[in-house]
Amino acid sequence: KMVKDYRKKVGSKTGGIKLHSELKQDFIIAGIKIGRDKFYRFLRLNNLLIPKTKNYITTTNSNHMYKKYNNLVKDQVPTRPEQLWVSDITYIKTQNGHNYLALVTDAYSKQIMGYKLDNHMRTSLCTDALAMAIKNRKYPNQKIIHHSDRGFQYCNPKYTEFAESNGIIMSMTEQYDPYENAIAERINRTLKYEYGLKQTIKNTDLAQKMTNQAIYI
């Protein structure tokens, strides 16, 4: 009942590890002694695990002639806010076709600093998200690295010159490996599976409202 009530309130796709963390205090109050592994078995036995689905939409096209930057953040862990931003594009399904969501996330705090949803994947989608992130900076004098995949949007001089003109240092994945941009991939998955953006949404206007709400939460 706790699991179902929590998912009804926060998101129907909340995973087992996060559920255990969020409900731990409720378990204590109710006198329920259950560790994470046992809780995971409980979810499986009661068909409460979230089924895995494959992502068939590719949002990265690195087959282009733009300059590709080196990976400056491999194996590095950020130690402060606005030291490292990670950017990525994910898709949102609507009844009128796919929309695309560009995100800029602070790797230290996991706060989404900027985002833009639209029905195209042009460079302006990412530039608008980055412009919002820059506007939301709290420490504008600190050095910051921007890390992304090698998609044409992030390598386009219109994007890189805008970033660098704002004192941002560019870094990119060196091969197509989600773990090279794992934080961005995780944020995408959280928004989709925990906050309802995985479903097919009626139209772009509703998708925009749901995206705003999900990112605010």
Secondary structure: elements and pairs:
Elements: H1 2-10, H2 16-30, H3 36-45, E1 84-94, E2 97-106, E3 112-118, H4 123-135, E4 144-148, H5 152-155, H6 157-165, E5 168-172, H7 182-194, H8 204-216
Parallel strand pairs: 1-4, 4-5
Antiparallel strand pairs: 1-2, 2-3
State mean pLDDT (0 to 100 scale). Answer: 86
N-to-C SSE string, H for helix and E for strand: HHHEEEHEHHEHH
Please state the overall shape, judged from the principal axes of the Cα atoms: globular
Low-confidence stretches: none
Name given to the CATH architecture of the largest domain: 2-Layer Sandwich
Record the strand order, biggest sheet.
3-2-1-4-5
Give the CATH class of the largest domain: Alpha Beta
- Roughly how many Å apart are the termini? 23 Å
Within CATH, the superfamily of the largest domain carries the name Ribonuclease H-like superfamily/Ribonuclease H
Helix content: 25-40%
Number of helices: 8
Tally of structural domains:
2
In the CATH hierarchy, the third-tier topology of the largest domain is known as Nucleotidyltransferase, domain 5
Radius of gyration based on Cα positions: 19 Å
Strand content: 15-25%
Largest β-sheet summary: 5 strands, mixed
Given helix and strand content, the structural type is alpha/beta
Number of strands: 5
